[in-house]
UniProtKB/TrEMBL annotation:
GO terms for biological process: rRNA base methylation. GO terms for molecular function: rRNA (uridine-N3-)-methyltransferase activity. The keyword Cytoplasm applies. Residues 21-56 form the Ribosomal RNA small subunit methyltransferase E PUA-like domain. It holds the Pfam family PUA_4. This is Ribosomal RNA small subunit methyltransferase E.
Length: 236
């Protein structure tokens, strides 16, 4: 079953066990993947549901639901100060690692001001990465906002990665932990300003370290999520 190709659809495309494919989806299945009539593939709605489907042309027939459990057992939000370059690959890799929600933020030192087209691209990348990595869901990517405005959007345990100072390692808070929700904020090139750190602490973010070395703005969110995934899945 896992060798079948996967396609993300919207719930509105399903009616009476039939999937109405968009022209782009049909082109992808028939021309890119070379599927023929009656070939099977996996349809996923990005919200946790999978189905075995059969291609019938511009439509597909749902044959049966598929039960699968590939998500992290903890809801993980990453608040990421937008780097100047490389955010496409950040989105791809943290989607593969299991992020639940991505909140791009504009910090005091952020240089990138993304266009609506760029945001659409990030969402397409997340969809492709979710299909490739056999995710049950496609992570939500919010519109970029200021760092301070992101505080009201998160709940549960909250951490902000800080490269300077004598701060405890993130692992100290992950092992052991009964948290069901976790938020981790990673900074821009040059790091968070002191004002941003203070505002985050006022909003009950705990400052944490990712190690003794200074990581790039592109690498930090990947490392942080890798630590979370390693800890919460280690007892499987």
């Amino acid at each position: 079953m896992t060798q079948l190709q996967r396609l993300t659809i919207t719930p509105t495309q399903i009616q009476n066990q039939q999937i109405t494919l968009t022209p782009e989806q049909y082109h992808y299945l028939s021309r890119v993947l070379r599927l023929q009539k009656d070939d099977r593939f996996i349809a996923m709605n990005g919200q946790g549901e999978w189905w075995l489907a059969k291609l019938l042309g511009q439509q597909a027939e749902i044959l049966e639901p598929i039960t699968i459990k590939t998500e992290l057992p903890i809801s993980t939000t990453l608040i990421i100060a937008l780097p100047k370059n490389g955010f496409d690959e950040v989105v791809r890799q943290i989607t593969e690692l299991g992020v639940t929600k991505i909140i791009p933020v504009i910090s005091d030192r952020t240089l990138l001001k993304p266009s609506p087209q760029k945001i659409d691209r990030w969402r397409r990348i997340a969809t492709e990465a979710a299909e490739q990595s056999e995710r049950q869901i496609v992570p939500e990517i919010l519109e970029p906002i200021t760092f301070k405005n992101s505080f009201s959007l998160v709940t549960g345990a909250k951490y902000i990665c800080y490269a300077r100072g004598n701060t405890p390692h993130l692992l100290n808070y992950l092992m052991p932990s009964s948290n069901k929700e976790i938020t981790i904020a990673t900074g821009p090139e040059g790091g968070w300003t002191e004002r941003e750190i203070q505002e985050a602490q006022t909003a009950e973010f705990q400052t944490v370290s990712l190690g003794k070395r200074i990581l790039t703005a592109v690498l930090a969110p990947i490392v942080a999520l890798s630590l979370v995934a390693a800890v919460v899945e280690s007892d499987r």
